[in-house]
Amino acid sequence: MNRHATTLGALALGLPLLLAGCATHDSSSSASPSSSASASATGAASWSYTGSTDPEHWGDVSTTCATGTAQSPINIDRTDLTHTATGVPEIHYQATTFEVENNGHTIEAAPANHTDNYVVIDGTQYFLQQFHLHTTSEHTIDGKHADLELHLVNKSADGAIAVLGVLFNAGAVNPTLAGVFDSMPKSVSADDHPEPIPGTLNPADLLPAGSEVLEYEGSLTTPPCTEGVRWNVYETPGSISAKQLSAFQALYPKNARPVQELDGRSVNEVPAP
């Protein structure tokens, strides 16, 4: 798999927009499917998850969404994996303060200090920019969705993106995410007005201990669907409570892009970090 694809050069250009494409804040993006007020708060309704601007129409926003050959999310078939020890994420996250916002597409939490939280993959350092939520999961494993998927979006000094994806199913309460669910704004946040999450949060606690990692090259999962993104999906799901799940689904009943074709790509299962 080519880890230095030329598409990474495109990622370095206009990084705020590209991060917005992975369901972070984008002042030109569309409304939440659950809130008509979102359109005025976030600008023109250019894409969404329902109706005439749903994922079937994202090619109208960015041609890459329709014509790309390394798109995300994907279905991961566990009977068709490669197995090498390359690409194991080295986690260097630590407890820090976070702020949370409702950006019109999802709930997003960003660390107060980006330099203290990073991962290293094949010698490259990627700094945590934010994490956000999708329901149902965007990736499927053996054709099955989890109840929720969390994306930790990391960026290198040269603008390359590595995303850690964690699946969650309803079960036991998740104490690490409790502050996020308790503090998440019910309506779209005003620009530059995130809500502080009480205390600190260690992103490492969001990663399932002892889980193998499913690694492949893909894209942002929302417009502009830019390719060259390094994906690391944890195979073992975590747990959130039914109450935590329903609190998020009350705001975003379904904000997941359908799975995309593999188009000849392979998925590599690497040992637990």
From TrEMBL:
Keyword Zinc: yes
Top-rank taxon, per record: Bacteria
Coiled-coil features, chain-numbered ranges: none
PANTHER family: CARBONIC ANHYDRASE
Protein's UniProt name: carbonic anhydrase
Organism of provenance: Mycetocola lacteus
Protein family membership: Belongs to the alpha-carbonic anhydrase family.
Annotated keywords: Lyase, Metal-binding, Signal, Zinc
EC number: 4.2.1.1
Signal peptide range in chain numbering: 1-25
Domain Alpha-carbonic anhydrase: 45-273
GO terms of molecular function: carbonate dehydratase activity; zinc ion binding
Pfam families: Carb_anhydrase
Keyword Signal: yes
Catalytic activity line of the entry: hydrogencarbonate + H(+) = CO2 + H2O
